[in-house]
């Protein structure tokens, strides 16, 4: 590791410990040339995911966008924010594990709806009404009837 003080290319590790809830490793290093100490962080490199929108355009996956959509659907509902963050993490991890670098928005939306259906059915219907772009009362009622049939 290159020293940030003198630029020498070699250093030794003095201490290593987990950081950021075991998401990275914090290392204290000492330069072999100038003996100054510095800290580095080692993290797993995640491959970027691209979302293919309904119109064919592409944009990078944004976990915050998924979370905002769920928060909006759960407005004035008894769903803790921690639960929504856990779901967003779960979805992101599932997408990362799939090894697919391009994901359709439909797939992301279905994953969100599957999880919201289990957490809060009102939030699920709210999310589905926006996501599936219900055009009239009949399509809205069809979705509600599907929910009732599951019970």
TrEMBL record:
Binds 1 zinc ion. One of its GO terms (molecular function) is zinc ion binding. Residues 49-139 form the ATP-cone domain. Its cofactor is Zn(2+). It comes from the Bacteria. The keyword ATP-binding applies. InterPro entries: ATP-cone_dom (IPR005144), NrdR-like_N (IPR055173), RNR_NrdR-like (IPR003796). Keywords: ATP-binding, DNA-binding, Metal-binding, Nucleotide-binding, Repressor, Transcription, Transcription regulation, Zinc, Zinc-finger. One of its GO terms (biological process) is negative regulation of DNA-templated transcription. PANTHER family: TRANSCRIPTIONAL REPRESSOR NRDR (PTHR30455:SF2). This is Transcriptional repressor NrdR. It comes from Dysosmobacter segnis.
């Amino acid at each position: 590791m290159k020293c940030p003080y003198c630029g020498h290319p070699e250093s030794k590790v003095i201490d290593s410990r987990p950081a950021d809830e075991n998401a990275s490793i914090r290392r204290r290093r000492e330069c072999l040339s100038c003996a100054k100490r510095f800290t580095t962080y080692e993290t797993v490199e995640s491959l970027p995911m691209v979302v293919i929108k309904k119109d064919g355009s592409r944009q990078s996956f944004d976990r915050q966008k998924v979370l905002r959509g769920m928060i909006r659907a759960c407005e004035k509902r008894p769903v803790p924010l921690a639960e929504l963050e856990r779901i967003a993490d779960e979805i992101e991890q599932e997408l990362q594990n799939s090894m697919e670098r391009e994901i359709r928005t439909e797939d992301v939306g279905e994953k969100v709806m599957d999880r919201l259906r289990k957490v809060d059915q009102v939030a699920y219907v709210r999310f589905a009404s926006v996501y599936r772009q219900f055009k009239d009362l009949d399509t809205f009622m069809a979705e509600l009837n599907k929910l009732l049939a599951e019970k």
